[in-house]
Amino acid sequence: MLFNSLNFALFFPVVVALFFATPKRHRWILLLAASYYFYASWKVAYLGLILASTLVDYVAGIRMGKQESRAARRPYLLLSLVVNLGILFTFKYFNFFVGSAEAALASMGLGWEAPVLDVLLPVGISFYTFQTLAYTIDVYRGEQEPEHHLGRFALYVSFFPQLVAGPIERSQRLLPQFRQPKSFDYQRVVDGLKLML
């Protein structure tokens, strides 16, 4: 679902209306469901990737928060880096590197038929990968407390307005907004609509 599509033009006002009709303490649930629906509208199978990234980094953040030293936090940071960059590399760069290796071997007279990963690049994979890595790096450095609420962390990773086109948001800025939802403010709505148009 593109931001300039009819589907989004129908989706967005419904989400906004439901958001303000939902009690503040439950708004994160609505936003998370809307974000997963938005992401699944591209391809349902890729929900597994964003869920895997979310769970790995949630656990890594919690575990790092229980460690006193950076050395004790390092294995959890490495887990996050390997999983997230591994997923990103597989979908974004695997065919390029395998094709380059095949060409290099062919130039040396060595025949090798490289395997090709025949899948579409998951939409937004770079944005959510680097956003969630920024979180784990901040927790590793002690600049961010781990988010203990799995739902709010999942929303931080998958928040639909910035999921496919950025910007990459720092956890220190976005997570507090999910904890303290704002009341309806007509002027902010008008200002937001002006920015969109």
Automatic annotation (TrEMBL):
UniProt xrefs under InterPro entries = MB_O-acyltransferase (IPR051085)
Q: For this protein, what is the EC number? A: 2.3.1.-
Q: Where are the transmembrane segments?
A: 45-64, 76-99, 119-137
Group of enzyme by EC: transferase
Q: Which PANTHER family match?
A: ACYLTRANSFERASE (PTHR13285), PROTEIN-CYSTEINE N-PALMITOYLTRANSFERASE RASP (PTHR13285:SF18)
- What is the gene name? algI
Q: What is this protein called?
A: Probable poly(Beta-D-mannuronate) O-acetylase
Q: Which domain of life is it from?
A: Bacteria
GO molecular function ontology, one term from the record: acyltransferase activity
Keywords attached to this Swiss-Prot or TrEMBL record, sorted alphabetically, are: Acyltransferase, Membrane, Transferase, Transmembrane, Transmembrane helix
